[in-house]
Write a structure and sequence with these properties.
Helices cover 48% and strands 18% of the residues. By secondary structure, it is an alpha+beta fold. It has one domain. Helix 1 packs across helix 2. It is elongated and about 50 Å long. The model has no long low-confidence stretch (mean pLDDT 89).
Amino acid sequence: MNKDQIVSILFSDLKGFSKIKDDNLKAKLVQTIENDVKNHILKQDNHFFRNTWGDAFFICSYNPVDLAEIALKMRDEIKNKNWKRYRSNVI
């Protein structure tokens, strides 16, 4: 990396996550979202660092457009999942 390299940072977490009282459901939810992000959204060439803390994601990229696309895909993945069906399958 040269000294003029652009680095973009995305930090995201789930709205309302802390209001969920069922620890088992929270753990399964975090695992599902992390798997979706790792397996469907993040590619070797669109980021260089990723870390998670519970429901929070910290992702870095050298390309801000790639990071914006990651953010939109994360939103769509969460928004389009059938959560009623998901919950009935994990409880």
